[in-house]
Design goal:
single chain, alpha+beta, Aminopeptidase, ten-stranded mixed beta sheet, 18% helix
Length: 222
């Protein structure tokens, strides 16, 4: 069941990405310009008031959710399917997509702003390797590595410009990242909305299998 991934945000913030963590009592979070995610080690953990937050800030908990302090409000909740790669490295017949660099930051923010406006931040790309497909004067598609913990790396920010969909860009980028992660001796995993059956099928075709469903809770800080 890939026990390390039962609480993936906590696992990442206390291992591979500890350097990006801010800690307040029982809570850890990514720096706001890296990602809007918080984590606690145990369900229902009691949080103290205050902490590294701005009034009105929106944050997210995945899988393990604390007892919220007074003034913190749940503004949304959904179910996320965690999928873990379970097969051999996928074929990547096309040439490798190039790595994205700091020079691509504006283009990455523009593209993710069309698809994931809340989750990709100015420094998110520091968490791992990001690759992309360029052309027609823009970044047409991208994907990268976000969470990481011992033995595992997450594929995230898989997005395609609306004018470039249905051209196989997402499958190509996921396959390349999966191969790279497996070659490094780690296991790729990812998260997808539990209601997005079309995405499940794409990931299953690339060797991913469902592992568990996780609560995804959106919270506004009072």
């Amino acid at each position: 069941m890939h026990d390390n991934l039962a609480n993936p945000m906590w696992a990442s913030l206390t291992s591979s990405h500890a350097g990006f963590a801010r800690t307040h009592g029982l809570l850890k979070r990514f720096a706001p310009d890296v990602a809007p995610f918080c984590a606690v080690e145990h369900e229902g953990a009691e949080l103290g008031a205050g902490g590294p937050f701005a009034a009105g800030e929106i944050v997210y908990f995945l899988g393990t959710v604390p007892t919220l302090p007074r003034g913190w409000t749940v503004t949304g909740e959904s179910s996320v399917l965690q999928m873990v790669h379970a097969g051999p490295p996928p074929d990547t017949p096309e040439p490798d997509a190039p790595a994205l660099t700091a020079h691509d930051s504006a283009a990455m923010l523009d593209l993710t702003g069309l698809v994931y406006p809340e989750f990709f931040r100015a420094r998110t790309a520091e968490l791992g390797k990001y690759i992309g497909v360029r052309g027609l004067g823009r970044l047409r598609a991208m994907a990268g590595q976000r969470l990481a913990c011992t033995g595992y790396r997450e594929i995230s920010a898989v997005c395609t410009h609306p004018d470039d969909r249905r051209q196989g860009h997402a499958a190509r980028l996921i396959a390349q990242l999966s191969r790279d992660i497996l070659d490094d001796g780690d296991i790729p995993f990812l998260h997808v909305s539990a209601s997005n059956k079309q995405a499940w099928e794409l990931y299953e075709n690339l060797g991913f299998a469902a592992s568990r469903e996780l609560r995804f809770v959106k919270v506004q800080i009072g």
